[in-house]
Description:
- The protein is mostly beta strands.
- It has one domain (2-200): outer membrane protein from Thermus thermophilus HB27 (Porin), CATH 2.40.160.70.
- It is built from two helices and ten strands; from the N terminus they run H-E-E-E-E-E-E-E-E-E-H-E.
- It has helices spanning 2-17, 185-188, and strands at residues 30-38, 42-49, 57-72, 75-89, 96-116, 122-144, 147-158, 162-169, 172-179, 191-200.
- An eight-stranded antiparallel β-barrel has the order 1-2-3-4-5-6-7-10.
- The radius of gyration is 20 Å and the shape is elongated.
Amino acid sequence: MKKILSTLLVLFSLLLFNSEVFALDEIENTRIDLNVGYPTLYTVGLEYVFSFAGDRFALNADIGYLPLGKVEDDFELKILDWSANIRFYFFGDGEGLNFNAGFLQAYFFATDTDYVGESGTAEKAEGTIALNYLRLMLGYRWVWGHFTLSLNGGYGFILNKNADMEVTYAGYTRTETYDIDEIPKALRNPIFVTIGFGFAF
């Protein structure tokens, strides 16, 4: 992974200093990005820039994955999320400084091999919980012809008033409801940071 990222960084550095070679007469409206960041490690995004108002408005969607693995001896966790957003490019042309606002839903999949259920004995259990967010981000996108690089950072505001976790163990399913104050603060108001490499066409 480090070798891939190093290669991409070298490529985009060359593009930065030779951007006139890759310049096009018109912008490429569709972009596909591969992002790495926090809290979701890997994200794939798709964006479309509308050809009006100076190419300032865009719709984008992404899906992300974070395989945390074992966070404790008997507890595993992975996260899958998706989002739908509206992006505004302040100076037009589908590039440069931009503001991104949208809805994000994150699914947390947990496996606990030492879950104590109604039987009073430790059993393997699987749980799923979904949290919804309003996500606001500020970013910058560079475009060199068919290549693009983006940096984004922002903040999430949780929309849930409570959260239901579906727990399955020993062939049974039960719902556990948590007040939103019981959710860790880092999950209630997460910080988002991404760097994206992609193609425009």
